[in-house]
Amino acid sequence: MNKPTVHDIAKEAGVSLATVDRVLNARPGVREKTIAKVQAAVDRLGYVRDTFAANLARQRQYRFAFVLPEGPNQFVETLKAALGEARASQVADRVLLKIVPVPAHDPHAIVRMLQRLDTSRLDGVAIMAPETPQLRDAVARLKEEGLAVVALVSDLPNAPRDHFVGINNVAAGRTAGFLIGRFTGGTGQILALTNSMRSRDSLERRLGFDTVISSDFSGLKVRPSIESFGDPERMERLVRDAVSRGPGLVGIYSMGSGNTRLLSALRASGRLGELVVIAHELTPLTRRALIDREIDAVIMQNVGHLVRSALRVLRTRCDGLPIFEAQERIRLEIVTRENLP
Amino acid sequence: MNKPTVHDIAKEAGVSLATVDRVLNARPGVREKTIAKVQAAVDRLGYVRDTFAANLARQRQYRFAFVLPEGPNQFVETLKAALGEARASQVADRVLLKIVPVPAHDPHAIVRMLQRLDTSRLDGVAIMAPETPQLRDAVARLKEEGLAVVALVSDLPNAPRDHFVGINNVAAGRTAGFLIGRFTGGTGQILALTNSMRSRDSLERRLGFDTVISSDFSGLKVRPSIESFGDPERMERLVRDAVSRGPGLVGIYSMGSGNTRLLSALRASGRLGELVVIAHELTPLTRRALIDREIDAVIMQNVGHLVRSALRVLRTRCDGLPIFEAQERIRLEIVTRENLP
DNA sequence: CAGAAAATGATGGACGTACCTCAGGAATTG
DNA sequence: CAATTCCTGAGGTACGTCCATCATTTTCTG
Asked: Which strand D bases fall within 7 angstroms of a protein CB?
């Protein structure tokens, strides 16, 4: 009737508790035949290890590090805030969190920080960083040391990460394309902005965006992507130039961060009201802009879900359990001024 | 250094383990002054109860009933599916779930089912039903018997429920208004449909919808709500009539269920492509219609979140703990064909 | 200041698992 | 068949918390 315990398995298999324990924890010194008997009993009764009790008994601590880009980035700030909240609620669940800030645009520095991690005092790492060959190697090293590794926000598809926690960026781009197409009415020119097209998420977003525009909104023409390379001044100057050049501009898709300068440039141009603007991530800035009707829609990923999913995945990987994919899919949310959280 | 335990608290506060236990579990028989001493020690050491050990020790079972409308309703089906998933996953460990189907539109029958519940074998109830005076009394009775009660999907603001788990329906209506305004271009007539304007969510949605339309889209005119009263034939007939009458119709807002007949009527009319259609809840039907471009956007509440939130709230109420409001706010999601989950 | 009542301490047994030791049985070897 | 290794059983302790009981101390009341 009730959940079967190790005792029930022992009785069912006709062996002692100690043997069941040895089998379940893959300890040596049990004959193949006996192992099979125990396994059969486990299957028959549908036994599942009570991880709560197991963790209690073995004094298990989950020690995870979150590698996040440092520097002024409102999205990362909200992520950190979410981590702070999670930390509070997860102490109770034996999870220790550590945040490792790394320079956003310096692959070598990121790798250096990863190498400096004390892997013996760590069970898992969540990494938010652009994919580079060096990073791939660093991730491989972490995996070899037996850590669980998840990619956060931006995927590392060619690195041996255990999982990617983040939205489908192609779908995000498609959604932006759909919204900008419907909001603009489908005629005119569109500007697409990002920090760098070398970053995986921007690439994918642009791809999705273009797909939808060309298939569903043939009246729209997307100009070549404008890249700021993390330089705010450059961003502001480029936007100013682009807006003043020609009257055909009807919409702007901001694929990355750097919305502060985008908005200030647009405000200066005086054309903010007429342009349809779609941006990513809900931050104090974009929230304000939504309310003020400066931005029409924001595509976001819920940082709370992001963090909780990352933690769940890291933990289940550490426990060697299978990941429940359906639960870990991060929703792509559309936020307008009317459904602000 | 390590996580403080109850033993550490006892030492720090200079009291015995038993007293710490009494304070932590709010058992009677402790002086105010002693309680304060223990609390101070808890704060000083940053003690957090180890939920693993606690759950293990207290072989507590939470017995909850979910009262849901029966009959053919795809949204309720997805809700039930989510309940099934929750039951399987660890979200619901030590939780016994029971689903109580009630006739959707018969207040007396609902109340009868509630009265028939064996309150001695139950710790909490989640109710999805329209608010009536009889229901209010029934909820009051459940509360008197010491059960936790939450309203699900549709609020019961005048009943003594502990919490409402669901979206802000005024905001949902506002969002629908915003989308239909932007998608249509802002000129023409709009049709609003529902099962019954007596149901609280429809009322609120219509209210939010009208607010936005009148303030932001003065070129749109919303016709009086069409009510089906749960009768599919009637729904189909009314839609057919409404669509054929006059050419000014540009959009449809379906506030309740009954999208099957709406779509079949629209298909028959041959005007499905040109009309902007906004509906509620993602079901196999609306998903299909989104992909086929028959519906432009769906406003949904994530049933998984709904269920998990309801369970969390019921559990914390049973434990007499405060509810963490921020975590329990259900997001209002906009789904288009490009960001389908 | 006695007696009652209230507050606190001491203690031990759960819960389900991990991990250890020790003894004795079984299988394998020569 | 004896000696040796290998398996297995029995039993214990621990993890952090809950909960119950009973003894003891402190505080309150008249």
From this structure: 6-12, 14-21
Other Cβ atoms closer than 10 A to B274: 9
In the three-class reduction of DSSP (H, G, I as helix; E, B as strand; rest coil), residue B245 is classed as coil
Indicate the SS3 state at residue A100: strand
Instruction: Flag if B338 and A212 touch (Cβ within 8 Å).
Output: yes
- Classified as helix, coil or strand, A195 is coil
* Set of chain A residues whose Cβ sits within 8 Å of the Cβ of B341: 329, 331
Contacts of A53 in chain B (CB under 8 A): 52, 56
> Cβ separation of A182 and B182 shorter than 8 Å?
yes
CA gap B120, B149 in Å, rounded: 14
Q: What is the pTM of this model?
A: 0.83
Check: CB of residue B302 under 8 Å from CB of residue B330: yes
User: In angstroms, rounded to a whole number, what is the distance separating the alpha carbons of residues B284 and B233?
Assistant: 21
DSSP H helices, B5-67, are 6-13, 17-24, 32-45, 51-57
- Maximum Cα interatomic distance, chain A, rounded to a whole number of Å: 84
Q: Which two tokens stand for residue A215?
A: 């298939």
pLDDT tens sequence across A126-150: 999 888 899 999 999 999 988 999 9
| pLDDT tens digits along A150-196 | 999 989 999 999 999 999 999 999 999 999 999 998 889 999 998 77
- B47 φ/ψ angles, rounded to the nearest 5 degrees: -70, 135
